[in-house]
Structure to design on (125 residues):
C-alpha cells in the first residue's frame, strides 16, 4: 500500500467506521514494517479513529515476518511493538505461508517470530 493510499484510508475514516460496532479492530499495518515512522503513524492514527468511534474497542496492530516479501528482522518487529505500546490492545503476527496466493509473499520466517517472542519475554519493565 503506498503512502498516498494510506493517507486516503485515514482521510476517509475507515478505521472509525469499521470499529464503530466491533469488539476488536485489527490494523493491517504490517506492510509498513521497515519504516518505523510510517508504521507508527498508521497505527496511531487508526487506533485513535477506532477509539473515537468506540472507546472500549480492543485494537490490535499487525506485524508480519515477511510483509509483502520484504525481509524484516526480529529487531524491526520489536521496535514496532514498543513504538506503539499503549496505543493498541496488542499485536497480531501474520504468518504468510503456503496459503498465500500473492506473488509478493516471501517464504515463511518462523525464526523471526520466535526471536521476537524471546526478546519480548526478556524485557524487564
Amino acid at each position: 500500500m503506498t503512502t498516498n493510499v494510506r493517507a486516503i484510508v485515514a482521510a476517509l475514516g475507515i478505521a472509525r467506521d469499521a470499529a464503530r460496532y466491533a469488539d476488536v479492530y485489527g490494523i493491517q499495518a504490517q506492510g509498513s514494517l521497515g519504516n518505523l515512522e510510517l508504521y507508527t503513524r498508521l497505527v496511531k492514527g487508526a487506533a485513535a479513529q477506532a477509539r473515537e468511534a468506540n472507546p472500549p474497542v480492543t485494537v490490535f496492530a499487525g506485524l508480519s515476518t515477511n510483509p509483502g516479501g520484504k525481509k524484516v528482522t526480529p529487531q524491526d518487529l520489536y521496535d514496532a511493538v514498543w513504538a506503539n505500546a499503549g496505543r493498541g490492545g496488542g499485536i497480531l503476527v501474520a504468518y504468510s505461508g503456503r496459503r498465500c496466493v500473492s506473488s509478493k509473499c516471501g517464504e515463511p520466517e518462523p525464526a523471526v517470530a520466535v526471536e521476537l517472542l524471546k526478546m519480548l519475554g526478556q524485557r524487564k519493565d
About this structure: Residues 36-53 form the longest helix (18 residues). The chain has one domain: 3-122. Strands lie at 24-27, 58-64, 90-94.
